[in-house]
Amino acid sequence: MVPPARLLLVLQWLLFSTASALNDEFSWHKIAPSEDLVWHECYSGQQCARLKVPLDYANPDGASAAIAMRRIHSVVPHHSPEYRGPILVNPGGPGASGVDLIQQFGDNISAVVGPEFDIVGFDPRGISRSTPRASFFENRAEQNLFWSSPGNSMAVSSSENALARKWAQGMLAGRLAAERDDGTLHFINSDYTARDMLRIMQAHGRDKIQYWGFSYGSVLGATFAAMFPDKVGRLVIDGVMDSENYYASEWSKNLIDTEKVWTAFLNGCVAAGPTKCPIYSPTVAEIQTTVDDLYSSLRTRPIPVRTATSYAIVDYDLMRNTVFASLYKPYASFPTLARALADLSAGNATGLYRMSAAPEFKCSCDADEFSFENVNDGGHAVRCNDGKRISASFEDVEKHYENLLANSSWADVWMGPRLRCMTWPEFPQTNFQSPFVANTSFPLLVVGNTADPVTPLWGAKKMSQGFAGSVLLTQDSIGHCSLAAPSLCTQKHIRKYFRDGELPEAGTVCSTDGGPFDTLLEGEEEEEREAQAVLGGSSAEDRTLLEAVRALSRAWDVPLGF
């Protein structure tokens, strides 16, 4: 699930990666879409393909779409009896790029599930390198100006008219989408993406899917399982959203456990002490007071920042959104956030700015250079096409915000995505939206953290109840999705599920290997000592697995999320 507000712009780059950087190595224009799955060498030892699928499954002989894919090839040959086929992965969003996920972290994911599988990341229809790509703007400059405008980055709590500004900005987004629709917008939805996933597996010569979906990817996985229950081979949904709440366009159950993650930062800082948590105070209350004072100070007096390559004004909105984003990846961000907040209390806002700074926007005279970059438009197209139409009344928006605020103090950074669907084009709502009840051909594995900031464990429990035989695996950790924290226990269960079809016992709870404040940027030698202390005399396979999950948990730019 992609973080809202300013972070939709920032994490367009950090979480979704940058297609222009990838195009320096490889051009997707070289691959002609085909109905047969034809793989081409791309980047560094990986393979890419574009699969031709119907744009409209109700009219399969009409226009076509092209689904971009990238894979890590299995270590074992495909003709070997040990080969276990492809696993599709979706990093969430909606709008995150599976191609980027494989480019950055495919080797780590392969190390988790094992060398017998191909790991296949795909860009869902409308997203990034899959065509047609959703876009509401005439050019990249207009697009960048819109998404970087203050109305998009503003936390609702920042001023008396902030909610009204976000409402107005949302009204514009829907109208622009309607005006710029070339006739393909209606076909960008999760229903058709699930059908595309089936086509991908069939093109691999497989009858049943193997899939690992994170965050919104859990909605996509649950949608596939409900639509095609007899086509499930192995299906993991991780960081699980209440799919019914998502399709109802409510987005009202996401923040149930958000405060737990922030409290973990405060408690962790006290326990870590001043050497590992620079904003340390002896009590949680004192640290919270320091943070509240920083919010108040930036509200009344923002700080200008100039670095060697960029500049910005660090204000209340930037701090609020940056702190919220850190809750997604505590092992990657909490030490850095503690340092940035300590520096800010001393008048230096550079660290906080660097946590949220997006690369400089660059124009190009080459029309093709950015034609496959990931933009915010695609995620909004999926979200708005999937969900029920919502009221554009400002009074109804106020009521929705008040209801969110009653459940979480973080409601002020959660309003943006929903508001952009208010004036969405009135397409017929024929796409699948429910029910999420099925007896699948193989039971699902449902994975949830005890304190996830945007997909609370409650959602995993609810969704598991609808799929017969599914098992909920609980990871006792903070952060978004299982990969937010290193847990050898969790990932060994996921590996056994994919490799052997072995589900954990009902009620299994996995602990983590270390905490987010265990190190404070103290170098790889200390991390290696920690890993050895955790593993002791464990096998080489376990050591490789822990190394992979530690790398995933401590990388800020793993593209998993709303």
UniProtKB/TrEMBL annotation:
Residues 410-510 form the Peptidase S33 tripeptidyl aminopeptidase-like C-terminal domain. Pfam families: Abhydrolase_1, Abhydrolase_4. It comes from the Eukaryota. Keywords: Hydrolase, Signal. InterPro entries: AB_hydrolase_1, AB_hydrolase_fold, Pept_S33_TAP-like_C, Serine_prot/Carboxylest_S33. Residues 86-271 form the AB hydrolase-1 domain. Residues 1-21 form the signal peptide. The keyword Signal applies. GO terms for molecular function: hydrolase activity. Belongs to the peptidase S33 family. This is TAP-like protein-domain-containing protein. It comes from Roridomyces roridus.
